Amino acid sequence: MTATPTATPIVQLRGIDKSFGPVQVLHDVSFDIRLGEVTALVGDNGAGKSTLVKCIGGIHPIDGGEYLFENEPVHVHSPRDAAALGVEIVYQDLALCDNLDIVQNMFLGREKRRGLVLDDATMEELAAKTLDGLSVRTVKSIRQQVSSLSGGQRQTVAIAKAVLWNSKVVILDEPTAALGVAQTAHVLELVRRLADNGIAVVLISHNMNDVFAVSDRIAALYLGRMAAQVKASDVTYSQVIELITAGRSGDLGLATANGVTL
């Protein structure tokens, strides 16, 4: 069943500034993330995508602006704080251990115990339930070692690990970057399924075909500023490229002064 997107964003960033020493990376950035939607975060290298995501995930403290979660101001100082809210990030390196199996990876650092021993039965049950809930059919056994999995299967395990903890927001950093055509299609189906299950998904991608295949909204960063955040159905491929490369496309995007994008 497809979830109905909520009117009020679950995450609202307002006027976010972030500097590293004398270099200001984010300038007055506003960004909304909604339950039941895939929001594509796009921008050229150095636009500030990774910094913005790390601010959301508690890795970088924000210098200025407001972070609202479920309409309440919050202070997120660490990934633990973000996880407590229900925010999980799946980075490009996936952070999986090749020498462990799927269940062990999904519960790594959050193992279930019964007294002093690991509760393997409960962890297996929860892992299987999570994968089933995402309609994952490509994994033969949840006790397979991760070293034996394909790139697409590894991405699937990393996404399942992120949603295992009743996450409300899942941020995916270039999830199809190293995948072939068939594996990319499978991962994009999974991304869409997350949103249809009511999760707020942020998809960071350079691939415009992927962006338009699954996204409800597109947020384009340009040199650390939010050029535009629009419904995917309201813009064209070429408009998004212009927002990424110039910060503006026609009447859409950042203001200009004397022909220079601000």
Automatic annotation (TrEMBL):
Which of UniProt's keywords are assigned here?
ATP-binding, Nucleotide-binding
Asked whether the keyword Nucleotide-binding is assigned, the reply is: yes
Highest taxon listed in the record's lineage: Bacteria
Checking Gene3D superfamilies in the record gives:
P-loop containing nucleotide triphosphate hydrolases
Q: Where is the ABC transporter domain?
A: 11-248
Q: Which GO terms describe its molecular function?
A: ATP binding
Protein's recorded name:
Sugar ABC transporter ATP-binding protein
